[in-house]
Amino acid sequence: MQNEVFFIVRIVAAIVFFGALAGGAYMFRNFERLFGVDPHMPSENASSRSYSKVLIFLVWLHLLFASAAFALLFH
């Protein structure tokens, strides 16, 4: 019975992994539109944009590595 539960966890983790890869591809393809200068926010400066980029990409990498680890953990 436990192998069946682990199989479901591996399937879900694999789906999340491929979804994270697709999300990363979208972020890299639309990098300037997502993280570029916003003319409607005059108080925004380069350091706040850089901080936002780092946070978003770290969360994305964490999701990517965690889902890959769960997909391969119960092999």
What does this structure look like?
It is a single chain. By secondary structure, the protein is mainly α. 81% of the residues lie in helices and 0% in strands. It is built from three helices and no strands. The protein has helices at residues 2-29, 31-35, 46-73. The longest helix has 28 residues, at 2-29. The protein is elongated. The two termini are 15 Å apart. The model has no long low-confidence stretch (mean pLDDT 87).
Spans of at least 5 consecutive residues with low confidence: none
Instruction: State the helix count.
Output: 3
Order of helices and strands: HHH
Query: What is the tally of beta strands?
Result: 0
Helix/strand/pairing class, anyone?
A: mainly alpha
Biggest sheet architecture: none
Shape: elongated
Radius of gyration: 17 Å
- Fraction in beta strands: under 5%
* Separation of the first and last Cα atoms: 15 Å
Mean pLDDT: 87
Helix content: over 70%
Provide a quick synopsis of the model.
This protein has three helices and no strands. The protein is an all-alpha fold and 75 residues long.
Write the layout of secondary structure elements.
Elements: H1 2-29, H2 31-35, H3 46-73
Keywords:
single chain, 75 residues, mainly alpha, 0% strand, elongated
